[in-house]
Amino acid sequence: MIAAAQIDRILDRYAEIEARMSTDGAGSSFVKLAKEYADLGPIVAKAKEVSAMREQMKQLTAMSTDPDADIRAMAGDELVDLKRRLPDLEHELSILMLPKDAADMGSALLEIRAGTGGDEAALFAGDLLRMYQRYAQLNGWQFEIMSESESDLGGYKEVICAVNGSGVFAKLKYESGVHRVQRVPATEASGRIHTSAATVAVMPEVAEVDIDINESDLRIDVYRASGAGGQHVNKTESAVRITHIPTGVAVAMQEEKSQHKNKAKAMKILRARIHDAERERLDKERAADRKDQVGSGDRSERIRTYNYPQGRCTDHRINLTLYELDQVMQGVALHKIIDALVSDDQAKRLAQLDESAVA
């Protein structure tokens, strides 16, 4: 239960920011205040609802001892209704008050790599790509393939995508990990079920101003693009490989005919990978129990199995099984898994806050 004092602190802070914004001029401090004000808006609205309902319950409790039997009966009925509704309202406020991940509301980079299983793993990587493309479309997000390495049978050895929109990372971050598929490959003559895997990595997109990378720490190599491309392949050194010397992180890009565009794309991916590695390091330092959180992003962890013969999709982190594999792979039912993961993560973080409060 959220204490009245906590609600009062939120309302006081909101009023303080409002007063400062009316007197402070434009500038970086105003922008910072405006962002905090906007972030607090939904919390304040819900906090006021909780306070109003609690006050109404006090009044009804007093009325329940009224000499008039009709008034007592009316107050008793309304009190029962409010007691039923208040816990849900307080839970909604608790969720809004959970510490926010600054990256949640932003866009993300999505990397899919074929794992064990050869050509079948590459075909499965392609299936995952199409699943995320459809899921992004259903959410109104923009989906762009930045780099791809196709397999001989039409799958993908590796594909890197940019997913742009509001709240992309908050949803897709739960997809990081090893995805396993069990099915009869198209190339299997005997009809035996094979198990293959693909690895998904989801990283928040990082603006240039959010991470400081010294030019002196970069080694930039240019070379001629390989693969399809006609005369362009032989005539221009448009492909770019950028290596961040301190961390050893390297990104190669050759999708564009322009060296400048390839460099810009490579830097975008490089910033995201360096930032992601730092996020993971800090998270591990802050929380020894990070492995218990569904959004940990551990890419060596097997998170989900797609079993085609049984038509089921199982997420192993929360023991959720859906017998609608086709709908999941079309991106239509993927939200059922992601929403369940979000709810589970919120419940665990609320429990941790409660434990901290008791301690």
Describe the structure.
The protein is of the alpha+beta class. The protein is 48% helix and 20% strand. The protein contains 9 helices and 11 strands. The chain has helices at residues 4-23, 28-63, 69-97, 118-138, 168-172, 231-235, 259-286, 325-329, 334-358; strands spanning 108-114, 142-150, 156-164, 177-183, 194-204, 218-223, 239-244, 249-253, 302-307, 312-315, 320-322. An 8-stranded mixed sheet has the order 2-3-1-5-4-9-10-11. A 3-stranded antiparallel sheet has the order 6-7-8, with helices on one face. α1 packs antiparallel against α2 and α2 (28-63) packs antiparallel against α3 (69-97). The model is unreliable at 229-234 and 288-298 (pLDDT under 50).
List keywords for this structure.
eight-stranded mixed β-sheet, 11 strands, three-stranded antiparallel β-sheet, 359 residues, alpha+beta
Q: Largest beta sheet: what is the strand line-up? A: 2-3-1-5-4-9-10-11
Cα distance spanning the termini: 16 Å
Percent helix, as a range, is 40-55%
Beta-sheet strand percentage? 15-25%
Low-confidence stretches: 229-234, 288-298
Q: If you average the pLDDT, what whole number results?
A: 85
List the secondary-structure elements in sequence, H or E.
HHHEHEEHEEEHEEHEEEHH
**What is the CA-based Rg, rounded?**
26 Å
Mass-distribution shape:
flat
> Which structural category fits the helices and strands?
alpha+beta
Secondary structure tally, helices = 9
Biggest sheet character: 8 strands, mixed
Please give the number of β-strands: 11
